[in-house]
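Bump. Still looking for Transposase structure tokens.
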Amino acid sequence: MGEAEGQKTRKERTRRQFDNEFKKDAVRLFESGNSSLRQVAKDLGISKATLSN
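Sorry for the wait, here they are.
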């Protein structure tokens, strides 16, 4: 099984970094109670695990 063309291996991916304002806004969105953790993460384009952390 070969790797699909255009896909990056785990080592080749760059790690995204989020500034403090983004983090605070993400938490506020979730804590407002209007959306689930899953929905907030999806809306922000991040994983549920990232938001949980």
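DSSP finds three helices and no strands in the chain.

Edit: fixed formatting.
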